[in-house]
Amino acid sequence: MTAIVRTLAIRAITLLGVLFAVLLLLVVSLGVTGVSDKLLEANVNEELRAFRIAQSQTIRDPNQLEQAVAQRRVELEEFYGLDTPWYRRMLPQLWRVMTLDLGRARSLRTADGSNKISDIVLERLPNTVILLTTATVITAAIGLLVGVRMATKVGTRLDRAVAYFAAVSFAVPAWWLGILFILIFAFRLDILPAGGMYSNPPPEGFPERQLDLLKHALLPILTLVLVSIGPSIYSVRTMTMTVAQEDHVLLARAKGLPEGKVTRRHILRVAAPPIVTGLIFGLAGSLSGAILTETVFNWRGMGRLFFDAFSGQPDEGVIVALTFLFTLIYVVARFILDVLYVILDPRVRY
Amino acid sequence: MAQSSAAIPQQPAPTATMPAEEQEPASAFSLRGALRLLVATGSGRAGLTLFLILVALSAYVLITYPRDFGRSRWSSPLYWADNPSAAPPVWTTWLGKEAVRHQRFTLTEPESVTQRGAAEVRDFRVTIDHTTSEPPEFVSVTLSGITFHSRAPVVVISLIRPDKPDAPVRLANVAVQGPRAGESEPYRRYYDSPLRINLTQQDTASDALAQFFQQQYPDLTPPATLDQSLVDALFGRPAADGSGRIEPLTGEYTISVQALVADTEDEIAPMTVVYGGTVYGWMGTDSLGRDIWQGLLYGFPVALLIATLASLASTIIGASLGILSGYAGGVTDTVIQRLADIVSNVPVLPLLIFLVFVLGSHLYLILLVLVAFSWPGLTILVRSMVLQIRSGQLVEAARALGASKTRIMFRHVFPQVAPFIVAQMIFFAPGAILAEASLSFLGLGDPSIPTWGQMLEAGFRTGALYVGYWWWVIPPGMMIIITAMAFMLLALGMESVVDPRLRNVS
Question: What ipTM, to 2 d.p.?
Answer without folding.
Answer: 0.83
